[in-house]
Design brief:
about 160 residues; alpha+beta; three-stranded antiparallel β-sheet; 2 helices; globular; binds zinc ion
Amino acid sequence: MAIREIRMEGDPILAKKCRKIEEVTPRIRELAQDMLDTMYEAGGVGLAGPQVGVLRRIAVIDVGEGPYVFINPVIVEKSGEQVGDEGCLSVPGKAGTVRRPEYVKTEAFDLDMKPVTVEGHGLFARAMCHEFDHLDGHLYIEKVEGGLHNVTYDNEEEEED
Ligand code: ZN
């Protein structure tokens, strides 16, 4: 288990487009595990490659339905609409209103490079949209309606260096 440093808004790596993963090497497996560890440690529900400085198409999500690892994810279907608050581990202490589909269907690969289809509603759908946007260099703050507001977390620990 290893916690990786989360890149913050303003870091140019967060604006870059990620490359596909061709093969799940031991290094990619380790990355996926580290990303889950880092996400849980930070109290988030999702994390994408660029947020830990890796420009590869990989994201992890756990909205309370267990951990998912997405390799080369593509949203193939979406429907409905939800409007709600969103935040990002790379933009700590902030949240803003973002419009997202209520339902999303994703095709991706798992850690055995087997194709998987994952469907999600509500928060899960929102998390998939958010995390996969990261893989194309986009942050949710580009989509916020009405500006960002401050939020406070229970485990408010200053980790500025
Ligand atoms: Zn994010």
